[in-house]
Specification:
The protein is α/β, with parallel strands linked by helices. Helix content is about 30%, strand content about 20%. The chain is built from seven helices and five strands. A hairpin with a 5-residue loop joins strand 2 and strand 3. The chain is globular.
Amino acid sequence: MLNRVFNRILNAVTSPSFYNVYVNLPNEESQLDSYISDNPKFFPFFEGALGALDGTHINARPSAQDRARYCNRKGLLTQNVLTATTFDMHFCYILSGWEGSASDGGVYHDARVHDLSIPEGKYYLADAGYPLCDALLVPFRGVRYHLREWEKSGLR
């Protein structure tokens, strides 16, 4: 019962009549959120940032024949869902339905090929599971950022 209701809601929010009206992908004129642009600690470094992009795993109940594809690296049956948010915490992109075994980079590649358009000179913040490219700002692998600052913050 819950599965049918969930599928009805998912189909409704991904239908062209809903998606084309309520989902606004960033474009060339997208303004940097004031949280970033008004803060001297962030603005010169994150100029051009649209928001953050990441994947999440949501529990799934696939048919017996599809279970192997939905088994993620932790052994759970999940869907890999790619989401992008603006800095004011509004979702501006969601791609769901990928098997749990799909990598974040693979889901991102599919999104870029089909419908995720990132304007020239703009980018999203992402974690190290994503590829190095001009549309994503990802941390260097193996670098432990700001550990001294985090350690000191626990003492206050």
